[in-house]
Structure formats: C-alpha cells, structure tokens
C-alpha cells in the first residue's frame, strides 16, 4: 500500500492488526462499516498485505451486484481455492458443498448443512497455517452466501480462522448484531489536507479548501474531485462550478441511493441542491404545488435531514448534491433555476446566476445583471469568479458590439488581474470577431498594452495605442466608468515606466475631462506618484487619513491605490498590514497581479524598515511568480529589489548581473524607470565599496546635481547618495546646488526620512563650524529610526565629520551606533567602512559577537576594495589620486593583515571581515 493511501489511518490499522493477531490464534470476526469512499477497501487491502507478510493464508471475495441473484456465488468466490481440502471432508459435507458451489449436479442440501460444511472446511484449512477470509461490499453478496458467512462468522472461537468484511453504513445486511464492528470514519482535517497536498501539490490554496469542504474527509472524494477540474480551475485561474462535478467512481457511489427515489422527491432534491442554503420557505415557494413533505423518501434514504438548530435542510454529504444534479435532465435544471430566481428578488447576485443558468440563448437583460455581478465580485477580490461572471455575460449578450466589448473586458481582467496573458490574447481575438468597433474599447486598449509590454512592445507604441483609444471615445469621461478606471491605471504605469514628462500630457488632458470630478483616491495617487516633488505636498494630510482607514478596508483595489500613493512619500509602513492581508488572501485566489503589486510594496517597505531578510524572501517570491506567469513587466521590479539588497550587502556580482538583466530588457522598450532602478542599485553598490566617482556618475544619471528631475520619483531615493558622492569627489559646487534644490522643493515637509536626509546633505556641504549643528538636526528628526539604514548612514557621516574635527570621543559614539546597525542589517561594505573609521579614531572595531574586525584604515579599505573589483594598481591610483607605487605598498601591508597572499583572495577576505 502507498503511504498516501493510508494517510491518517494509523488507528484503523492498529484495529486491523489487533484483529489479525487474535484471529490467527483463536479465531475472530470483524465488520468494517463506513460511508461510500471512506477507505474500507484500502483497509481490507492493508489487512491482506499484513496477513500475507505474516504467513496467513487469505481467501478473498467481493459482493457483485449482478450476481446477487445467483445463490452461493459469493461462497463460490471464497471456497473455490480450497479444492484440495474439500476432498478431505466427510462425504455428506463434501457433496453438500460441491452442489452448492456448482461443481456437481444434485439436489440442494439444507442451508444448515452447507453452513456447517463451510465451517468445517475452513477449520480444516488451518491445519498448516491460519486462514483469513476477506469480503468487500458485504451487502452485495447473494442472500444464500450471506447466510452461510453469517453462520460461520459467529462460530470461529477456538479456530485459527479470521473473518473480515466491509459494508456501507446504513446498508442492510444479514450480519446486523452479534459481530464485533469498527466504524471507518472520514479523515480528520490535518490528515485530509496531507492527503490532497501529497497527491495534488500544485492545487491552488482556495481550490484545495473547496475540495476539502466538499469531500468532508472522504478519501476517495479527495483524490477524485480535483481530477474533474480543468487546469485553470485547479490553479484558481477560473472559477469553480457552484456544484462540483463527480468523477465516474464518485458518480457510481453517490447516485445509487438517489436514482431510485420518486420523481417529485428528486425534483425537490434538485431545488435544494441548486438553492444551497437549505431555506425551507424558499424551497416550498419554489416548489409551487409540490409539497415539501415529498422529501420524506430522501430523508428515509439518509440523503438529507433537517438541522435542529437552524431548521434548514442539509445534505448528509456535500457530494450528494452533485449526484442529484448529475441525475437531473436539463429541462428540470432550467425549470428549477427559474423557480428559485423568482424567490430571490432581495438577492440580486444569486438571482442573476439562477437566471443565467436557466437561459437557453442570448438574453441582454440577464447579461447586464451578470456584468454588475462581475464588477461587485471583483471589488471583493474574487478575480476568478468575476472573470467567470463576465464571460457568461458576454455569452448571453446578443451578437454585436456589446458581446465584443464584454469579451474585451474579460481580456482586460485576464491581462491585469489574473495574469493569464494567453487567455487575454484569445479573448481579444474573439472580441474582434464579435465587433469591428473594438478600437474604441478602453478595455481592449488596456489588454493590448499589457500584451505588448510583456512581449516585444515598447513604451512609445503602447502609449500611442492608449492615447488613440481615449481620443476615439466621446468625452467628457464619467468618473464611475470601469473601463476608464482600467485605462487610467494602465496609463499611470506606462507614463511612469516611460520616465518622460511629455508622456503625461495626454493623461493630464483626460484627467481634466473627467466628470463630475476625479475619484478622490485616484487623485491622491496621481499627485503623489507621478511627480511627488512638485505635487504631493498639498494632499499629504488627505493621504494620511486614507492610510489610517486601510486596516478595515475590504476593497483590494483601494488598498493598492492608497499604498501606491504612499510609496514615494515614505508612508508604506502604515499600509503594511492591509498589504499583508491582500497578499495572504490573494495567494489563495486568482488575483495574480494584485498579489505581485502587494509583494513588491511589502518588499520595498521591508527594505526601508531594515527587515532585509523579509525583503529578500518577498523579492524572491515576487520574481518567481512573475516568471511563472511570463510577466517580465513585473519581473524587473522584483529584480530591482533584489539588486538593492545585493548592493547594500556588498554582493557586487549579483548587482552587476541583476542590473544588467534589467537594462537589457528595458533599453529596447524605452522603459526608463527600469534603467533608473538599475542606476539606483549601482549607486548604492559603488558607495559601499568606496568608489565615489562611479557613485556620482550613477546617481547623476537619475537626477542631475542641482535638479530634482520632473516626473522622476527616483530622485527622492538618492539625494544623499548624490551629495555624498559629489563631496567625496571634490564636486562641492554640485553638492551645494543639490542641497539648495532639496530645500527649495521642501523635501523635508514630505516625510521624516527626507527631513533627516535634507539636513544631513546640508551638513555634508556646510562649513566645518556649521556642519555639527546640521547633523544634530538630522539625527533629532522624530521617527527617523523607522529607516535604520538611512539613519546609520547619517550617523556614519556625522562620525566621520567629528573624527576629522578631532572630536574623537563623540565620533566613536556615532560610529559605534552606525556599526551596530550595519552589522544587524548585514550591510557588509558599510560595516567595513564604519570599522575603518572607528580604528582611525583610535578605537578597535568589535563585531556584535565580540570578535575584533581586521584592522584596515579607510584608505587601505578603499585600495583593497578596488583591487578586489579587478582594477590594476594604476587604475586604483588614478581613482584615489595615488601613485601606483603607493597602491602597491598598501597592498603589501594589507595582505598579511587579512591573512591572504594574493589579489584573488581579497574579495572573500573582505567579506569575512564584513561578516
């Protein structure tokens, strides 16, 4: 037996083993009972294997329905292998059995004679070793055989014969009473989850939960129900049927009792199955002239019952509902759906689905109802159900433009929510066949935009198509138009990725045409995301109020809009719990792209908050999901976060690989934002290894000195990077110009982080006698510790200033605080930089674990880091304004201090020092 087959059956196996032990010594009988599919046959198989392994002889039979009228057919299955033992019986018993088994012709013997002969034969067969008789589906035996085995099973004491049989709970047998029994119960929750996970590891969590609920621990149902679903349903990319279909095996098990019921009873059962809630008043009203009492035969058959607590009708097992539906003809199904719809005026969503299921052909009114259902379902975050509803709405739409527009909307959802680009492509093709006027569809333009950007399309082409689509629609545009909302969100993404101010002009024109006004949340997003330096300030209070309401916000789209508005204003921490809830719920459903958005935002929040291990896990998950769904548009965003972490931790090879991938993808498509993201990671990596010239070049590519580039939010990521690199490379004028631009823009009013960095940048460019006060102001900013990496960098800069001013005691305090943070974060290059500064102040740097850090001066570390990166002595000298002989001398002293003998070992040695 496989491990999966016996999952959760330890206690049942123990019962069987105990029975075998008793039976092989002194004879015993055991009757296993349980619902269909619960695993009785599996336990009989386990008993067979255990008996054979123990040297017990096994005789096996099973009830066969079509042989139920053939007397002694079951007895024949069991005793036929005992031919040699049969000839040794006394003549009376031998002849009685031969006639009963059909081996010879003759007058039938008395039932009691056959029973005693069978008992004698079984006892005789145990002369050499114990014997086990196994009978599956006992009620399926013919009556004559059942009487014999009932007689035998009660008279095994003192023999070495075991009798093990199985029967469905509630089935009629001739064994009732007088035999030991064991009920095989459904699997408990953990065992059921283990079984389905082992057999179907790729089943989406939401689908797994549905199957677990429907199966109710029935092992056969757990193993068969997923097989009736298609690939999209198993992955939660398509909605599951309201009543799950049955496999052939489940159909055979669960329809047998329902198929023999009277027609009125079956129709009432169908109403109950389709209605779902068990409301007897609704069922009676829908039944019309039929009496609810017609359900009595179904109750007597054990199919349904009335719950005492609620007074509602319930099925004994959820799969009985499926069986009832599968037994019904389409005419009855449509009639039942119409009858139920007539009773649900107060529940428009359920009513719409019943009407849709009752429809024979196109029905514009029902299609409109389902379209509204789809929108509401999507707002609740159930993307797969929304796609199903909208697709059914399109199918019910009369042929022409309305059907095409609805198919385009389904394509849009597939491309922007569920992450099914192939499906979006197919649906767009279907929409074009349905209507020739698809160029006016904003949903079609959005779906096309995502298809292009995730293949070989470029920003300008996509932008042009979106602009053409909006200009072909009649204005003014209505704020509550869902097609417009999809267009606006996609246009924000395209313009942001494009990174050019000119891309935003058609977007601004559209915003100005919206009536009665732009939705408040979207206005927040535009003002804080597109160009936060120039437009975020007036709406920050409004943004804070919106963020405060996110913990209780059920609308996933509103959570994402507000959280996106929080990105460049350093307010993601307030969105954290809502985003975690969205990601958790979304992982279990079909909303792939909202989950990717939530993961990206959570990763950025974790990086800024100093939870770098969490950030790495989230970035890895996001990248894997983006690649799994063939979404390079989202993959580069995850790669950006991985590159930032690699840069901060000093993994130069990873930075080069990741930024290279991003640029190779972004350049031909004109995705400037991805290129800026690569510059950001490269800037941080260069600062960490002390290559300030490269850091300046990379940071200036994002935002030139003295300019906070228009519509480039990344300018708010690197202000201190640019100023520090400029100061360290002798570009004092450029550094001062950038500080002036930061102050003029009022960055300090946007967030505590930017307030801290503004003061710190001013300190880096100020005269020595003013710098200390500015550094102190930076470190005194309230809540600055919410950004530990940025805070530690300011502490490092202040410590460096104090050391140069010969205030070594104060310098050590700030440098030690920075070192502690860098060590906790795992920011290796920054640990080395800070450790070198501490040593220069006369204090040996000590790691958190108490070990001293290898002693290198600041200049020695710079030389070592550049040599480890592959530069020659001459190249290092040119960067540091040293002669190549001085560089060689430094390396001569560094090697023994680090315990190495060659340049090739420098990188590992520096990493060890950092850790």
Structural write-up:
The longest helix has 18 residues, at 401-418. A hairpin with a 6-residue loop joins strand 6 and strand 7. It is built from 49 helices and nine strands. The model is unreliable at 847-852 (pLDDT under 50). A five-stranded parallel β-sheet has the order 2-3-4-1-5, sandwiched between helices. Strands 6-7 form a two-stranded antiparallel sheet. With 915 residues, it is mainly alpha-helical. The two termini are 51 Å apart. It has a domain at 4-183: P-loop containing nucleotide triphosphate hydrolases (Rossmann fold).
Radius of gyration: 38 Å
Q: Quick one: biggest sheet?
A: 5 strands, parallel
The assigned structural class equals mainly alpha
CATH class of the domain at 4-183 reads Alpha Beta
Q: How many helical elements?
A: 49
Q: How many β strands by DSSP?
A: 9
Which helices and strands, and how do they pair?
Blueprint: H1 10-26, E1 28-34, H2 40-53, E2 57-62, H3 73-79, H4 83-86, H5 91-100, H6 111-124, E3 131-136, H7 143-153, E4 161-168, E5 181-183, H8 189-199, H9 205-215, H10 219-224, H11 231-234, H12 248-254, H13 256-259, H14 263-275, H15 280-287, H16 296-300, E6 304-306, E7 313-315, H17 318-327, H18 330-341, H19 348-358, H20 364-379, H21 383-396, H22 401-418, H23 421-434, H24 442-453, H25 459-472, E8 477-478, H26 482-498, H27 504-513, E9 514-515, H28 520-529, H29 532-535, H30 540-548, H31 556-566, H32 576-587, H33 592-608, H34 612-628, H35 632-649, H36 652-666, H37 672-688, H38 692-702, H39 719-728, H40 732-745, H41 752-765, H42 768-779, H43 788-804, H44 808-825, H45 828-840, H46 858-868, H47 873-880, H48 884-898, H49 906-914
Parallel strand pairs: 1-4, 1-5, 2-3, 3-4, 8-9
Antiparallel strand pairs: 6-7
């Amino acid at each position: 037996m496989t491990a999966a087959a016996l999952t959760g059956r330890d206690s049942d196996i123990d019962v069987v083993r105990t029975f075998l032990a008793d039976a092989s010594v002194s004879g015993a009988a055991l009757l296993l009972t349980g619902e269909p599919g619960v695993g009785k046959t599996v336990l009989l198989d386990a008993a067979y294997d255990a008996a054979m392994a123990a040297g017990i002889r096994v005789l096996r039979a099973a009830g066969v329905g079509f042989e139920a009228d053939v007397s002694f057919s079951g007895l024949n299955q069991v005793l036929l292998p005992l031919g040699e033992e049969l000839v040794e019986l006394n003549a009376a018993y031998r002849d009685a059995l031969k006639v009963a088994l059909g081996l010879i012709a003759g007058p039938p013997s008395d039932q009691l004679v056959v029973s005693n002969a069978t008992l004698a034969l079984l006892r005789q067969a145990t002369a050499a070793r114990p014997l086990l008789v196994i009978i599956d589906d006992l009620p399926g035996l013919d009556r004559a055989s059942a009487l014999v085995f009932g007689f035998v099973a009660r008279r095994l004491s003192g023999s070495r014969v075991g009798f093990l049989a199985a029967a469905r709970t509630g089935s009629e047998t001739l064994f009732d009473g007088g035999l030991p029994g064991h009920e095989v119960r459904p699997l408990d929750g953990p065992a059921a989850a283990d079984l389905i996970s082992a057999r179907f590891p790729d089943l989406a969590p939401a689908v797994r939960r549905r199957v677990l609920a429907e199966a109710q621990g029935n092992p056969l149902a757990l193993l068969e129900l997923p097989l009736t679903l298609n690939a999209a349903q198993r992955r939660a990319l398509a909605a599951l049927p309201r009543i799950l279909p049955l496999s052939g095996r489940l159909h055979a098990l669960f329809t047998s009792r329902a198929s023999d019921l009277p027609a009125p009873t079956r129709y009432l059962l169908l109403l109950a199955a389709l209605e779902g809630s068990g409301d007897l008043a609704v069922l009676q009203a829908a039944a019309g002239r039929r009496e609810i009492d017609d359900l009595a035969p179904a109750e007597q058959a054990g199919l349904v019952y009335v719950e005492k607590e609620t007074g509602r009708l319930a099925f004994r097992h959820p799969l009985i509902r499926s069986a009832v539906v599968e037994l019904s003809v389409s005419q009855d199904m449509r009639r039942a759906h119409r009858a139920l719809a007539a009773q649900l005026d107060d529940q428009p969503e359920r009513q719409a689905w019943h009407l849709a299921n009752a429809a024979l052909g196109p029905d514009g009114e029902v299609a409109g109802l389902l379209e509204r259902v789809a929108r509401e379902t999507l707002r609740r975050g159930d993307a797969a159900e929304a796609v199903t509803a909208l697709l059914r709405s399109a199918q019910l739409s009369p042929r022409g433009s309305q059907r095409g527009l609805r198919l385009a909307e389904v394509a849009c959802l597939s491309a922007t929510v569920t992450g099914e680009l192939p499906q979006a492509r197919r649906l767009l093709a279907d929409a074009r066949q349905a209507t020739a006027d698809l160029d006016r569809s904003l949903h079609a333009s959005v779906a096309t935009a995502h298809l292009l950007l995730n293949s070989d399309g470029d920003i300008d082409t996509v932008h042009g198509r979106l602009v053409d689509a909006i200009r072909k629609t009649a204005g003014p545009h209505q704020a509550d138009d869902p097609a417009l909302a999809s267009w606006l969100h996609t246009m924000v993404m395209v313009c942001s990725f494009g990174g050019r101010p000119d891309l935003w002009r058609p977007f601004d024109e559209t915003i100005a045409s919206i009536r009665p006004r732009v939705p408040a949340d979207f206005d927040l997003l535009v003002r804080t995301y597109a160009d936060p330096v120039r437009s975020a300030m007036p709406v920050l209070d409004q943004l804070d109020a919106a963020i405060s309401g996110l913990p209780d916000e059920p609308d996933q789209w509103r959570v994402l809009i507000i959280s996106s508005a929080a990105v460049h204003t350093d307010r993601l921490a307030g969105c954290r719990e809502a985003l975690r809830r969205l990601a958790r719920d979304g992982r279990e459903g079909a909303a792939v792209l909202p989950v990717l958005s939530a993961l990206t935002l959570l990763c950025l929040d974790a990086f800024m908050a100093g939870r770098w291990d969490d950030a790495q896990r989230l970035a890895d998950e996001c990248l894997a999901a983006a690649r799994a769904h063939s979404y390079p548009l989202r993959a580069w965003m995850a790669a950006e976060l991985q590159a930032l972490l690699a840069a901060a931790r000093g993994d130069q090879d990873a930075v080069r690989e990741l930024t290279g991938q991003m640029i190779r993808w972004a350049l031909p498509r004109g995705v400037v934002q991805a290129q800026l993201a690569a510059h950001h990671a490269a800037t941080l990596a260069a600062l960490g290894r002390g290559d300030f010239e490269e850091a300046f070049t990379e940071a200036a590519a994002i935002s030139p000195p003295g300019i906070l580039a228009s519509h480039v939010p990344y300018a708010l990521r690197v202000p201190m990077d640019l100023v520090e690199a400029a100061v360290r490379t002798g570009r004092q004028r450029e550094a001062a110009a950038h500080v002036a631009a930061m102050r003029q823009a009022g960055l300090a009013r946007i967030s505590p982080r930017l307030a801290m960095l503004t003061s710190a940048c001013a300190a880096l460019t100020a005269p020595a006698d003013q710098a200390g006060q500015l550094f102190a102001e930076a470190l005194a900013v309230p809540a600055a510790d919410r950004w530990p990496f940025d805070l530690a960098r300011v502490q490092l800069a202040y410590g460096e200033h104090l050391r140069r001013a010969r205030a070594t005691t104060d310098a050590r305090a700030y440098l030690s605080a920075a070192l502690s943070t860098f060590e906790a974060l795992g920011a290796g290059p920054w640990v080395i930089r800070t450790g070198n500064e501490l040593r220069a102040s006369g204090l040996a740097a000590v790691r958190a674990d108490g070990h001293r850090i290898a002693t290198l001066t600041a200049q020695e570390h710079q030389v070592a880091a550049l040599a480890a990166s592959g530069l020659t002595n001459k190249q290092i000298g040119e960067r540091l304004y040293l002669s190549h002989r001085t560089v060689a001398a430094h390396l001569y002293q560094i090697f023994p201090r680090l315990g190495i003998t060659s340049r090739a070992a420098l990188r590992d040695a520096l990493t060890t020092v950092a850790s």
